[in-house]
Amino acid sequence: MRNVELGKVGRKIRQLRKERGMNLQEVSDKSDITAGLLSRIENFRTLPSLPVLHNISMALNVPLAELVDLVGNNGESNYILVRKGQGEKEEREDSQGLLYENILSTGLAETNLQVSVVSIPPGVYRKPLSNDSMELIFVAHGSVDYGIGDNVLQLQQGDILFFDGSIPHSLNNTTSTEAVLFKVYLLRRR
């Protein structure tokens, strides 16, 4: 099975969850996994084990085969076009007030690529977190303080930052205007 194919599982889980009007917490409660793990699976930040997939299928009341039915389907085009405003908006469990618009998520070779536009309202602070990715950030609008380990970097419009996401990182918008980041995640495979 090609790595790019596995991203379809997370997208299918999200689609089924939303069709059923369920939020992350409801599915996680019914599947006995954390909402954070479910979010990472949906965003292809981690690969679920077969028992976890089984639990999710039971929570969504669908056969396990339905979660993986698109894997191996090669009927897709060789390009992806996302029109302005058509990205899927998401407030992640760990977002603490940030709004993510996921505009692209696909697999590439030994990594998985995810591209998001992140809106950071004035006064929002997100506590440090880490993930299993390399991150590239472009400040499209405004400014934000970005903590990486013990360092705090003051990022301004037009700045680009690239770093190892496994280092705890935080952000803080201390200004009175919204900041907008263009984020590219290169997620590592295990």
From TrEMBL:
Under Gene Ontology molecular function, one entry of this record is:
DNA-binding transcription factor activity
Pfam families recorded: Cupin_2, HTH_3
Protein origin, superkingdom: Bacteria
Query: What high-level taxonomic lineage is stated for the organism?
Result: Bacteria, Pseudomonadati, Bacteroidota, Saprospiria, Saprospirales
The entry's protein name is Helix-turn-helix domain protein
Which PROSITE patterns does the protein's record reference? HTH_CROC1 (PS50943)
Which organism does this sequence originate in? Answer: Haliscomenobacter hydrossis (strain ATCC 27775 / DSM 1100 / LMG 10767 / O)
Q: CDD domains annotated for this entry?
A: cupin_XRE_C (cd02209), HTH_XRE (cd00093)
Q: What InterPro entries does the record point to?
A: Cro/C1-type_HTH, Cupin_2, Lambda_DNA-bd_dom_sf, RmlC-like_jellyroll, RmlC_Cupin_sf, TransReg_Diox_bact_type
SUPFAM superfamilies cross-referenced by the UniProt entry: lambda repressor-like DNA-binding domains, RmlC-like cupins
> Cellular component per GO?
cytosol
Keywords in alphabetical order, please.
DNA-binding
What are the residue boundaries of the HTH cro/C1-type domain, all occurrences included? 13-67
